[in-house]
Amino acid sequence: MIFLGGLPGLGVFILFLTALCRAELCLPNGIPEGQRLYVLNASNEQSPIRLTIFAWRSSIVTSQIAQILISEVLGYHALVTPETIFDTTAGISRLAGCESSDCQVKTSRTDVVLDTWLSPVFPFWQGFLAQNPQVAEDLGSMGYQGGDGLYIKGSVLESAANAGLALEYYKSYNMSFHQPYKYFDTLWDLPEADLEPCNGSFLGWPLEPTDSEKMKNYLDWTGDVDGVVERNGQYSANCQLPAFWIAPAFRHNYTQCIPVMQNGPGYMVVLMQWSVAYGIPMALTHGTTGTNVMKAIRNQRILYYWFEPDETLLDLRHARLILPPHSAAGWLKGDFRTGGEEVYIAKLANVGLQISAPRVRTFVQKMKLEVGELLDMLATTAINSTADQKLQILGDAACQWVKTKSDIWGKWMPVKTDCSAGYGLVDVQGLPVASLAEAVDCQVCAAGRFSEVFTQDGRQTYRCQECEVGFHQSGFGQSQCIQCEAGTFAAAVGQATCSPCERGTYVSSTGATGCSSCGAEELWTTSKAVQAGGQEKWIEFEGATSAGSCHCVEGRHLSAGQCEICIEGASCPGSGVPTLLPGFYSTLGVLAESFFMPFLPSELLSCIKGIKASRLWILFTI
């Protein structure tokens, strides 16, 4: 997940999967492995449908549900990647075949990434799409939202509520009116050996107190010069105790501080601003391991960072601290004084599924779970189970859910005539049709057609429509036709390519249905000059884009708007302008006639070779 600096569930459920491919069938009538299909990947090789999973349980269990249904109901080989990913951006990058967001190491492209916490990394997602066009797409919500923040155990809430204090509201921590610390343990109640120093790390990840950019951001927004240390242009949190950063209003009296346990590298930059903005007496700390984080949360009366949906701590009946509503504009600038946002949890897919496995794409698009259904499956995991045990339990929970919830997942299955983008309805002969009444299946739209979405009887699907005149489409499975370029035309519907204007015709506009003629006779052509052997030569060509390419055919020249036959003593190479041959002269401004000049000296003859008619006429009138 890795958003706002946190790693929800990291250390609580860290695992490296040896395999997430079910050897036995889950469904009694499931399609056996020997009858399943492979798809062609980007390298044109046979490949299973690949699903990438994140380290949190909701990703694992939903991916296993998808794997079962893709393989046993839709009939494709499906493989859940053999390792979990902690970073949302790394999971997204797998869609482009990259190990991580910097794409320094290549790997197999994944096809589906479920339970992606997209909101916190939306700028990265937009940049990813810009850098990798036609690679990935968002197929919609998982059906539930996510959230994170500071949580308080139900037992602590009840104790304070009995005294008339609602600790789920941030205003209850204002020390000018209340004494919230009375309901929490002190800093010294947490075992020192279980806490990581501020300048330490968590499973190799540097803790947020050492993140210079984030600490500088905190200083800029709060002006708390005692809360941050600057050394050689680098900023870090100034922890008043080795494992604790103390909120500014309580650095004179640690006994009134409330311990706040963070998960993973931390949530420091946000919590620090909350402590200043609302006077919350925080003492921020980190656990050395995920086990120690969980031990502190369960055994101590503290505030702690957590996320939802997650079943791990449901037995604690905890509640999230309520803060002023989230300000997206503020957070974008680094002002984190408002509460966190409700997180959009997405289903991402490789766009190649549109062609290689459109029914799988439709299934993923329709897949939605209510949060209650999800939590019921997650709750089957025993709190004290090992990672391998939890993996097995989640797999069994996914299979049991599929066995008993066909009324839910049955609605996710694509109907044969529920075509996806790039495809269209066809009849029993495989010919394109325009209505559901005639259709029996879907096929990829052929060249000369485009995939058009339409709705009939409340159902949305696609049909393959012919390109209009003036348009073409040479590709298969395309969603639109393309205008013919200047110099080309499409006179009929359903053209895969545009035809070039024939010689002697041209068109300057795009989307043309025909070309304009250079002249009424066949004495016109379209030509251009090229260099051949150091000499100019005129050649005819098709696809002219302007009347400026119109000339008389070779052997004729332009005279009074007409292409006249070339006269004796002149050359007409196709430019429309005659050239006087050596040994001839003309007495007219144009070469209407020419005369042989045997009486001229050879020096003069060589001097006037190739002189055009107008210049030669001037020569002889001087």
Q: Any descriptors?
A:
622 residues, Tumor Necrosis Factor Receptor, subunit A, domain 2, 11-stranded mixed beta sheet, 15 helices, 36 strands, 22% helix
If you had to describe this structure to a student in words, what would you say it looks like?
This protein is of the alpha+beta class. Among the domains are: 33-146 and 343-412, Periplasmic binding protein-like II (D-Maltodextrin-Binding Protein, domain 2, 3-Layer(aba) Sandwich); 147-320, no CATH class; 423-489, Tumor Necrosis Factor Receptor, subunit A, domain 2 (Ribbon). The protein has 15 helices and 36 strands. Strands 3, 4, 5, 6, 7, 12, 13, 14, 15, 16 and 17 form an eleven-stranded mixed beta sheet that branches. A three-stranded antiparallel beta sheet has the order 29-28-30, with no helix packed on it. Strands 1-2 form a two-stranded antiparallel sheet. Strand 28 (524-532) and strand 29 (535-540) form a beta hairpin. The model is unreliable at 1-19 and 589-622 (pLDDT under 50).
Summarize the structure.
The chain has 15 helices and 36 strands.
Q: Architecture of the domain at 33-146 and 343-412, CATH level 2? A: 3-Layer(aba) Sandwich
Q: How would you sum up the major sheet?
A: 11 strands, mixed
Structural class computed from helices and strand pairing: alpha+beta
Task: Name the CATH class of the domain at 33-146 and 343-412.
Answer: Alpha Beta
Task: Map the helices and strands.
Elements lengths: L38 E2 L5 E2 L1 E6 L2 H16 L5 E8 L2 H6 L18 E6 L4 H10 L4 E17 L1 H9 L32 E2 L4 E2 L2 E2 L5 H11 L5 E4 L2 E4 L7 E2 L11 E5 L5 H11 L3 E6 L2 H10 L3 E6 L10 E2 L7 H6 L9 E8 L2 H4 L1 H9 L4 H8 L8 H18 L1 H4 L13 E4 L14 E4 L4 E8 L2 E8 L4 E2 L9 E2 L4 E2 L9 E2 L4 E2 L9 E2 L6 E9 L2 E6 L9 E3 L3 E4 L2 E4 L4 E2 L7 E2 L3 E2 L9 E2 L5 H6 L5 H9 L1
Parallel strand pairs: 3-4, 3-5, 13-14, 13-15
Antiparallel strand pairs: 1-2, 5-17, 6-15, 6-16, 6-17, 7-14, 8-9, 10-11, 12-14, 18-19, 20-21, 22-23, 24-25, 26-27, 28-29, 28-30, 31-32, 33-34, 35-36
Helix pairs in contact: 1-11, 1-12, 5-6
